[in-house]
Write a structure and sequence with these properties.
Blueprint lengths: L12 H13 L6 H4 L4 E5 L2 E4 L4 E4 L2 H4 L8 H13 L11 H13 L2 H4 L2 E5 L4 H16 L3 E5 L8 H7 L7 E4 L13 H17 L8 E6 L2 E2 L5 E2 L2 H13 L4 E4 L23 E4 L11 E5 L18 H16 L2 H20 L5 E7 L2 E6 L12 H13 L2 E2 L1 E3 L5 E4 L7 H28 L4
Parallel strand pairs: 3-15, 5-6, 5-7, 7-10, 10-11
Antiparallel strand pairs: 1-2, 2-3, 4-12, 8-9, 11-12, 13-14, 14-17, 16-17
């Protein structure tokens, strides 16, 4: 039986007032607040309590930032220790014991072959700042300006990151096909589709008339997150590593959302066994606070002092929270737990799909899960159904479940629960999702049967 969170008798005045003032004062660019009109006042683990007294299961987790959920005791304790110590909170890029402890823990989690020759650059506080740093690094090291990126990518909202994501035109960026089994750009899918994508890349780079600017790097996500939770096939990732190595093109792995155990290994590149030249890290590495770094091979470390700077590179609270998070995930084997629980949840969602034709595809890795909703009455391949996806998201919210939408047309329901998710919580999440999906389907059917309004 579905678990339904009872709605309060009436929203509090404070809740309504805060939402009203937000709508009046904040910009039209706000995003999450539009689809999730809640006012969080308390949170712990998977659960958020709103100002109206309602409780929610949070499967957004700060867009993947909260590896341990909200206000985990080890994170709070780490922050309190820094506050109580009298240590400076703002130190630019100076060395501190807190920073040294964070860097030591970070290097302990990296793939050993990568860690042996690694350098780290602390960037501005957001993942997009780290992407910009990575692009500056490789362009400085190679003397080239071109960039290889992929359809469906998301790397941030600053100029260079947007260009790499396809959000802004840039003649230096060459867009390549990313394997998307459900909607294969070659109409084949599977291993054959991924191999064709690799051949396309290889042939384009080797074609003297291909029109590709000399690439300073290739940047990719091991699992496209905002693009719709699309895991890259391991064999294809290995091919990208072979192609770039053979042509002396640095490979940048954007692990902003996939890192720190999210996909079932500590870093998502470990599934394929590849060693990138650069890793872009943010979100979960700060333990819920803003922190972003790039880790890269020492051979690339040829930029000059100040080549990439930023005032807020020395956030001591974030480093303390991040070190505590990294250690907790590592010591408690939460990546392995994410792999097991994620596989179980994927299997249950695939079972749900068997009875709901509107579910076109269920995919993911670890606790990074996507459910693509489609219009089942259309000819195959069924087109995405963003209207149904929005309805499912709202029905989830009514039942006390917070989910995000992604994908090319925002038709993929995304689940990013904390790695501390229990079996009982996972069952509650899936129950609420199943109930919300059925309700959204009923609403869609009623609208179809009633026809257009007059």
């Amino acid at each position: 039986m579905a678990v339904t969170e009872p709605a309060p008798a009436a929203p509090t005045v404070a809740h309504e007032g805060i939402l009203r003032r937000q709508a009046l004062r904040e910009s039209a660019a706000r995003t999450y607040a539009r689809s999730l009109p809640i006012v969080p006042v308390r949170a712990r683990g998977l659960t958020i309590e709103g100002a109206d007294g309602r409780r929610y299961l949070d499967c957004l987790s700060g867009a993947g930032t909260l590896a341990l959920g909200h206000n985990h005791p080890v994170v709070l304790d780490a922050i309190r220790k820094v506050l109580d110590s009298g240590a400076p909170l703002h130190v630019l890029d100076l060395a501190t014991p807190v920073k040294d402890a964070f860097t030591t823990e970070l290097f302990a989690t990296l793939p050993p072959r990568f860690a042996r020759h690694a350098r780290v650059q602390f960037c501005g506080p957001a993942g997009t700042d780290a992407v910009e740093a990575a692009l500056t690094l490789v362009r400085t090291a190679t003397g080239r300006s071109g960039l290889l990126s992929f359809t469906g990518a998301y790397h941030g909202m600053t100029a260079g990151a947007l260009a790499a994501s396809g959000g802004a035109p840039d003649v230096r960026v060459t867009r390549l096909p990313y394997p998307y089994d459900y909607r294969c750009p070659f109409g084949i899918g599977g291993e054959r589709g991924a191999e064709l994508a690799a051949r396309w890349t290889e042939n384009l780079l080797d074609d003297p008339k291909g029109g590709v600017p000399a690439p300073a790097a290739m940047i990719l996500e091991p699992v496209q997150g905002e693009g719709g939770v699309i895991p890259a096939p391991d064999a294809w990732l290995r091919r990208m590593r072979e192609i770039t190595t053979a042509r002396s093109i640095p490979l940048i792995a954007d692990e902003v959302q996939t890192g720190v155990g999210r996909t079932g290994t500590f870093w998502a590149v470990e599934h394929s066994g590849i060693t990138p030249d650069v890793m872009v890290l943010s979100k979960a590495i700060g333990g819920s606070l803003p922190l972003a770094v790039i880790v890269y091979h020492e051979d690339l470390d040829c930029w000059q002092p100040g080549a990439h700077a930023g005032t807020f590179r020395g956030n001591q609270l974030a480093m303390a929270a991040g070190a505590a998070t990294l250690a907790y995930v590592r010591e408690n084997r939460l990546a392995e737990r994410a792999a097991l629980l994620g596989a179980r949840m994927l299997g249950q969602l695939q079972g749900l799909a068997a009875n709901h034709p509107c579910i076109g595809d269920v995919r993911g890795r670890g606790l990074m899960i996507g459910v693509e909703l489609v219009s089942p009455e259309a000819d195959a391949p069924a087109p995405p159904d963003p209207v149904l996806a929005r309805a499912v998201q709202q029905e989830c919210l009514r039942r006390g479940l917070i989910v995000e939408l992604g994908g090319r047309q925002s038709a993929v329901v995304r689940l990013l629960p904390p790695l501390t998710l229990t079996d009982e919580q996972a069952a509650a999440v899936l129950d609420r999702f199943a109930d919300a999906l059925a309700a959204a389907e009923r609403g869609a059917l009623l609208r179809t049967e009633s026809g257009p309004s007059h």
